[in-house]
């Protein structure tokens, strides 16, 4: 039975959504899906069409309007792509794969006239007309996933209806009828898409706060949420911004996806935000690979859990030769629900590649004899500074744990004075950068040279990963400006 069919079978009086604090029942949710499907069918939406969806105003795509548009398009058996940020819009349109874009007026402005546009809006607070039920054609539906890793160059993975269902079922163990999910990861990501679907398929509730920016959304949603899905940087940002114990901490689980869990972040989260903290590792290409409780990082700082059922993983050398258990090397993996490859018109970038029946995500990791998987970083995270090779992730973990550092990125800059380790840091205006520099100098060995440069923010992709080439270019420009100002002083 498909996901939409399972949602339609839930008891109508159960709460499916908390939209801005207002409960919406499954009966209302299903009625809105059908009403939207009827409207979209009149625009030619159906099997064989690819629909770009960017309806609603929420920053991360999780608005009621946007989700109704997604569910209706799936029910009509069309292909859909979540275009809820500029990178997704640009990638989807460049691929020439979109027949129609759904959205509100403001969101459609940068869609070129050559692509059909249809303004779609749904007010969750207004009554809805009960229309006729629309036939469920979800077995023809497909999802076009844009995955860029840390390269900012989108690649395309297509899930057919069977894979959509398999990917949702894989995380179904986290959801039941009592689940109240607050999804922080962007809807266009694998986790942002499938965790809400798994929650609804189990009869649970998804929390969609008002379209507010920043931490205002969280303050509204937290008291009700017993499951939060987010990345480590998202969790860190909220632990910085929301002081004291989070309301509803008792009985809450936080699922972290997309990065390593620093020990200090774990300890604060368990003290203030939740009573259970899980780590998961996977990809759009293969699905979830490993999952574990927070204690696994005591074994290795990059531990992400134990291999899941139906998953194979190996650690190999650059020549493809297996390395001993517990030793670092390139990760390669495959699963029963692995995609067959990238779509025509896109391809392997940033180290991610399908080869010989395996998927190489571009990560360096370790696999222990008991199945525990640990991630040391991405291949692009290993800095080579004049022969000095060091993990950028380890440096960021070290510096990011210092008081007052809100965010940090470590890169190597190619300057006139040589290849120099450089930290971009986010901090308050009155932060003592000179004192931080002295602390870092004491942590590094052999008097290694480095620079510390303030940044207003550190850009990250939808999963919280750092695009290092982009940041290196930004820091090079900032360094040049600082040096020029010093010379003119």
From TrEMBL:
It comes from the Bacteria. It holds the Pfam family AMP-binding. InterPro entries: AMP-bd_C_sf, AMP-dep_synth/lig_dom, ANL_N_sf. Keywords: Ligase. The keyword Ligase applies. The keyword Ligase applies. Residues 8-342 form the AMP-dependent synthetase/ligase domain. One of its GO terms (molecular function) is ligase activity. Belongs to the ATP-dependent AMP-binding enzyme family. PANTHER family: ACYL-COA SYNTHETASE, MEDIUM-CHAIN ACYL-COA LIGASE ACSF2, MITOCHONDRIAL. This is Acyl--CoA ligase. The lineage of its organism: Bacteria, Pseudomonadati, Pseudomonadota, Alphaproteobacteria, Sphingomonadales.
